[in-house]
Amino acid sequence: MIVENMDNKEIQKIIFVLFFFYSIIMDICKLSDLKKIFAVQLPITSQYVMYVFLGYYLDKIKVERKKLILFDLFGIFMMLIVSLMGYRMDTVQYNDVPTVILSICIFLTFKYKFDYPINKIEKFITKKHLEYIFAI
Fold this sequence. Notes:
Elements: H1 8-31, H2 48-60, H3 65-84, H4 97-115, H5 120-135
Helix pairs in contact: 1-2, 2-4, 3-4
């Protein structure tokens, strides 16, 4: 209800602030000794709120196929670099920058596939999936 009464600029600002404090700053603190110095408390205690705003915003935008492919390649490249840097899987959190980027890639890829199915099988699956969702 809150998000529906906001315009895109306000949603972008909220996403940026949450992403900056819950992802970028947290990653910097993990990689350095800043966790002892840097102390900012946001009134929101979970990074999942960012995903709610992000999902709503991403659902409303249109993405061209070329930009989506480039963004997906960037996400794959980022995950490869993170893996090669020696990030252990047990240290990866939902608020890490690579995880947020990968989540955006997956969301936009599925959104694009359901919005623009390209063959008969995809059209059939999309149609059946949408019928199931709206039947509930």
